[in-house]
Each structure stands twice: as structure tokens, then as C-alpha cells.
Design brief:
Order of helices and strands: EEHHHH
Mean pLDDT: 90
Low-confidence stretches: none
Strand order of the largest sheet: 1-2
Number of strands: 2
Largest sheet: 2 strands, antiparallel
Distance between the termini: 52 Å
Strand content: 5-15%
Radius of gyration: 17 Å
Length: 127
């Protein structure tokens, strides 16, 4: 597998270049990355603000950028939908629960639809 370097605020991340034949592997990597980032966020919330916390937050941001790059790669390979749909095309995980996706390749703004379906959303829209 080929790799390339992605730079973010002076830091570098190595990105694997996935071929079309490995699109399912890339989807799985992004789903796992979303879970890891959500778990890491929960861990960060428990820490006191310190130099260690700031360093971990920077690592978390870099991981978000890296995961977003993998989503862009997935889109370039022709996949632009939710990663959390079953074989019938039905979403089995909401965008807003509990922390949602950190990175999403979807061309459809499912999160917007979910947000507008929340109680009181129609009142906010009319103001």
C-alpha cells in the first residue's frame, strides 16, 4: 500500500492510500476511527487542564484531521453515503448519538435532518 504525508499545524501524519479494491477495509477503518475518537474524547473530558491535556487534545485534533482525510479518500473512490447503514440501506446509528461521527463521507446531511427532527426544532426554524 502506498502512503502520503498530510500536514496539520506543523505536524505530519502518514496516510495510507487505499485502492478501490479495499473500499470495505477503508470503511471499517473509518468506523473504528470514529469510535476511537469518541472514546478518546470521553477520556479527555475527565482530565484536568494541563500541559498533558493540551498535548492529548492536539493528538486528538490531528487524529480527526487524519480521519477526515480518509473520508475524503473514500469519496474519491466513489462512496459518499453514511457508514452506518445495514444491507437494506437503513441507518442503524444516528449522527447525533451519543457523540456522533467525528468524520463522515456522506454527501447527504443526515445530521441536519436528525437535528431538525428534535423536539422544538420547528420553533427554532421559524424564529
Amino acid at each position: 500500500m502506498q502512503t502520503y504525508i498530510l500536514e496539520y499545524q506543523g505536524k505530519k501524519a502518514v496516510i495510507d492510500q487505499y485502492p478501490r479494491a479495499q473500499i470495505e477495509e477503508l470503511k471499517a477503518r473509518i468506523r473504528l476511527g470514529n469510535q476511537k475518537l469518541n472514546d478518546a474524547w470521553e477520556d479527555l473530558r475527565k482530565l484536568e487542564v494541563s500541559d498533558h491535556w493540551k498535548a492529548e487534545l492536539e493528538r486528538w485534533h490531528l487524529a480527526n484531521v487524519k480521519l477526515s482525510e480518509y473520508c475524503s479518500q473514500l469519496k474519491r473512490l466513489g462512496f459518499g453515503d453514511c457508514l452506518y447503514k445495514d444491507e437494506n440501506g437503513v441507518k442503524y446509528k444516528g449522527c447525533l448519538e451519543p457523540l456522533g461521527c467525528r468524520a463522515c463521507p456522506s454527501d447527504i446531511s443526515y445530521w441536519e435532518k436528525e437535528l431538525m427532527a428534535l423536539p422544538g426544532a420547528s420553533k427554532r426554524r421559524s424564529k
